Prior knowledge:
The chain is α/β, with parallel strands linked by helices. It has six helices and six strands. It has a domain at about 35-135: 3-Layer(aba) Sandwich (Dna Topoisomerase Vi A Subunit, Chain: A, domain 2). The strands form two sheets. It has a four-stranded parallel beta sheet. It has a two-stranded antiparallel sheet with strand order 1-2.
Amino acid sequence: MTEEFSENLKELKNLKSCQKCFNIAEGNLCEICKNTKKEQKIICVVEEPLDIISIEKTGAYRGLYHVLGGTLDYSPDKQVELKIPELLGRIKNEKIKEVIIATNPTTEGDATALYLKKKIKDSGNNVKISRLAKGLATGGDIEYADEATLSAALTNRREMI
């Protein structure tokens, strides 16, 4: 058991950051960036690599990713270098058609999403910018939902066809 744990720790030392999207990788590129079957003209922007795992589990998304490495934070003692310049470069160089902003529905995540939208628009890249919809969780009860969730669910409602 101790030897197996030791081997697993050694393997962790081999992990790097993908040079393209900043996901976790064993080599220069992560498995998603190496996958030619992925839609190459759509980028989903996430805060952290773990967000990619959650989205990939759904099977609903077939594009590429870009890991920001956090969110905007106005606290002077917590400054994070976000990978925004790299994202703007990818949008231009890879001729991206759509950017899906998938930051968490928190104050920081929403502020980061608005900031990204402005930066992308100001960069002159003619690209569709979308944001994940917000609302009630599947299987949830309305009586237990908080006000912000209910408000988002009402605002983002869709016509039933």
